[in-house]
Amino acid sequence: MDHDEYVIVSRTQTLSRIQWLFYGLGNIGPFLAIGTTWAEKRIGFWLSFTVPCAITFFLPLILLVIYRRAIKVRPDGKQLSQAFRILWIVLKREKWRLFTYSDAWDAAKPSVLPARDRIILQEKSLTWDDGYVEKVKENWAACKMFFFFIIYCLAGGGIGVITSSQASSLSTDGVPNDLLWNLNPITTVVFMPILVYGLFPFLRSHGIRFGRVARMTVGFLLVSVSSLYGALLQWKIYRTSPCGYHATGCETGTGVSHISVWVQSPIFIINALSQLFAWTAAYEIAYIQSPEHMKSITLAALMFVGIFNNAVSAACAPAISDPYLIWVWAVPGVANLIQTAYFYWYYRHFDAQHSDLNT
């Protein structure tokens, strides 16, 4: 760097870039699934399980290498217990106003608490002040956004094994049913640098602030497109399958539709693009907007959405069967469109109010 050169360092942009890097690296690993998928079909399941197992043994070595350079923060359970106590007070006093009115959090502030309650809490160690309640309020504002990801995940082919079931009714021509799933990480790795180093800097240079709520909205819309495309494809499968509306597990004739399994590609590609916009924005909000010492709580709340979605998916799997698979695709897609409209309306001022967080 020349001595007369100015370098602008932005903490927000740096943290945002770290979140993108985290998400991108998480999608490089699934590339190996391409090889294990073919190994499963051509050689056997033993090889497809042995390869990732062998790679896993190298992870402790990597942790040992970076151990000294890693920043280690001592766990503090006090933060979590205080946050839950504040949340309980607000919920008990304000009921459902907690979800719609930001002033509901005033109910937990020591300056607002009635004298009797304040004395009782002091006996149980009232250790927070009004400022800490505001921090919990900020954390809750970030966590509320994550509720929208429940329907979003279901719309992204998250009910049961709907995508694999659909693929089994298409002509594979020797291609493994679950090979197309690898288009998701491939799309992510290809388009991530295009967005980070191309689209977003271009928008910034032209004064266009493509904030996190805007990105999440685009991601939600894309996943609905993917889901509705899946519904249309499922309808076409029913029309062309030898078994009609009982295409899954069909044993009549060829047992499958003449449509190639590769027509499923847009589902995975659009899903990946959707995740690039929606999930990365959620990660950034979870880490950047949440107060210090509460980032792990916020990220845990975001991860819980994925766990909850997996539970719903597993619970619904036995009920997913012909001839209702069109609805399995269409209903979450339409529901997600409706919630996207509400999401954007509810958070329409968020990007303007948090302009310092925008990409």
From TrEMBL:
Q: Where are the transmembrane segments?
A: 20-39, 45-67, 145-167, 179-200, 212-232, 267-287, 299-320, 326-347
A cellular component term (GO) from this record? membrane
| Keyword set, alphabetical order | Membrane, Transmembrane, Transmembrane helix
Q: Show the InterPro entries listed in the entry.
A: MFS_trans_sf, POT_fam
> Does this UniProt record's set of keywords contain Zinc?
no
Superkingdom, taxonomy of origin: Eukaryota
Cellular location(s): Membrane
Q: What is its main location?
A: membrane
User: Per UniProt, what is the membrane topology?
Assistant: Multi-pass membrane protein
Task: Give the record's family classification.
Answer: Belongs to the major facilitator superfamily. Proton-dependent oligopeptide transporter (POT/PTR) (TC 2.A.17) family.
What protein does this entry describe?
Major facilitator superfamily (MFS) profile domain-containing protein
Give the originating organism.
Exophiala bonariae
Q: What is the lineage of its organism?
A: Eukaryota, Fungi, Dikarya, Ascomycota, Pezizomycotina
